[in-house]
Amino acid sequence: MNITAPIGDTLSLIGNTPLVRLSGPSEAAGCDIWGKCEFANPGSSVKDRAALWMIRDAEERGELRPAGTVIEGTAGNTGIGIALVANALGYRTVIVMPDNQSKEKMDTLRALGAELVLVPPTKYADPNHFQHVSRRMAEETEGAIWAGQFDNIANRKAHIEGTAQELWHQTEGRIDGFTCAAGTGGTIAGVGMGLKEKNSEIRIALTDPHGAALYNYFAHGELKAEGSSVAEGIGQGRITANLEGAPIDTQFRISDEEGLVWVERLLRGEGLCLGLSSGINVAGAIELGRQLVSEGRENPQVATILCDTGFRYLSTLYNAEWLRSKGLPVFDWLERGDAAR
């Protein structure tokens, strides 16, 4: 699919994000760790890519017509991307989201003009799960499509033909490993497939948060979740269509506490304000880098995804009271701020 936008078209701002060497993680891993700055997309997250490709794919198939409606169930970032793309192309947006996601995401969606429907968080098997609610709404709404990001493989195509190609060119073909967490599975599968087409020896690793089932699936062949995580937008309990055939070579499980260590270090040491999913991804990239170094590879190059901006989590991840309520460590500057009040 050709999604190249003409110069000056706002949709051309999606993708071609910078790749930055992360000094602290590189030092910790003993090799170069690179972060793909997906917060530089117009909607400030990696999900802008999937939003654009899913909408363009629906147009090409004739399912989405002028003045139509895009309906989706999402933890927030995909909805934000869809709302921006839909605005640019003249479509209406309806987003169904669990009501335990950050206030910033909800406020952003409303500010972008999306109709926001909040539902209680529940298991996928429950008919009231946000994905099922959004699908039914699309079926009942004239002129609407359901984006269906979890099983819509236009999602992973965005990364096969976009993100993976960018990483290959930005590293001049010298990339030894890639890792990230899975939400829909589109990013890890798509980047993995795209990079493997270039060099089958590139190691693709899943970085899974606690509470997700994919670590055990790829390690032991069983979908089994253990523990829990407060990270938004990552963690999966089933094999989505996007994950089918994903070339996963190895897997890591990262706790929220370890992810928060890197959220703090990247902010304090490198000036990057990121969400917890990015911290978990970076921790996984360090593990992958150490693994490659231990095998005798000379300064392996490992890349990961910096998923979104930390400004989207000011009421949660960067809020001392919220962190305490979740039993998580509080950043020291937040503790000082509380004490000064």
Automatic annotation (TrEMBL):
What pathway is it annotated to? Amino-acid biosynthesis
> Is Cytoplasm there in the keyword field?
no
Q: Does the keyword Transferase apply?
A: yes
Mind telling me which CDD domains this protein's record contains?
CBS_like
Q: Which UniProt keywords apply?
A: Amino-acid biosynthesis, Pyridoxal phosphate, Transferase, Transit peptide
Listed InterPro entries: Cys_Synth/Cystath_Beta-Synth, P-phosphate_BS, TrpB-like_PALP, TrpB-like_PALP_sf
Any one of the GO BP annotations: cysteine biosynthetic process from serine
**What Pfam families does UniProt report for this protein, alphabetically?**
PALP (PF00291)
Where would I find the Tryptophan synthase beta chain-like PALP domain in this sequence? 13-308
Task: Give the GO molecular function terms.
Answer: transferase activity, transferring alkyl or aryl (other than methyl) groups
Q: Needs which cofactor?
A: pyridoxal 5'-phosphate
Entry's PANTHER family? CYSTATHIONINE BETA-SYNTHASE (PTHR10314)
Q: What is this protein called?
A: Cysteine synthase
Which species does the entry assign this protein to? Erythrobacter litoralis
